[in-house]
Specification:
This protein has helices spanning 3-11, 16-37, 40-57, 66-85, 92-102, 114-127, 130-140, 146-153, 157-177. It is mainly α and 182 residues long. It folds into 2 domains: 3-85, RNA polymerase sigma factor, region 2, helix turn helix motif (Rna Polymerase Sigma Factor, Chain: A); 92-177, Winged helix-like DNA-binding domain superfamily/Winged helix DNA-binding domain (Arc Repressor Mutant, subunit A), CATH 1.10.10.
């Protein structure tokens, strides 16, 4: 079933929407959650909570891309769960990724401009070379380890680290030129 038909089911308030969403995007959402939590039970709970949040958000929200819409929900739920449990089970890779990225994104006080920032990030990533875009999203959206990114891209871990650093610097400059500064 296409994403548009699934969205139509949500608008019709047909409970089949949840089943079709799970069929179409369940494995993807589980992968996003697992990359953050590294715990199947917690990931399953976050994915199930994603279906509820999607049900409550659609309508009135009309997702432009259902997969991205769901990814954002499951990612945020997983990060919240991670923060709740990090005292018990810290995930070194996600912590390292967040520290690296924190040098080039706005502070909490600037989060009110999240929609504008999201558009700028989209524009920036569209302007990046495909390899750099994949590495950046793998590291900072999915929380992947540098060694895993290296294995998947055919680059050395050192090359991945350097490319990520250069991409972060380009992002910092790009945002700074548009009025976002640290």
């Amino acid at each position: 079933m296409t994403d548009q038909k699934i969205i139509d089911l949500y608008f019709a308030r047909d409970e089949k929407a949840i089943l079709e969403t799970e069929r179409a995007h369940g494995a993807f959402c589980m992968g996003v959650s697992m990359s953050i939590l590294n715990n199947r039970m917690d990931a399953e709970e976050c994915v199930n909570d994603t279906w509820l949040k999607a049900w409550n958000a659609i309508p009135p929200t009309i997702p432009r891309c259902l997969r991205a819409f769901l990814a954002k929900i499951v990612r945020n739920l997983s990060i919240d769960r991670y923060r709740e449990k990090r005292v018990e089970r810290p995930t070194v890779e996600l912590e390292a990724a967040m520290v690296e990225l924190s040098a080039c994104i706005p502070t909490e006080a600037e989060r009110e401009e999240a929609a504008a920032l999201s558009d700028l990030l989209d524009q920036f990533l569209r302007s990046e070379e495909e390899t750099d875009r994949r590495l950046f999203l793998g590291r900072y959206w999915h929380g992947a380890a540098v060694k895993d990114l290296a294995a998947g891209s055919g680059l050395s871990p050192n090359a991945v680290t350097k490319r990520l650093g250069k991409t972060r610097e380009r992002l910092r400059v790009y945002l700074s030129e548009r009025g976002y500064s640290l």
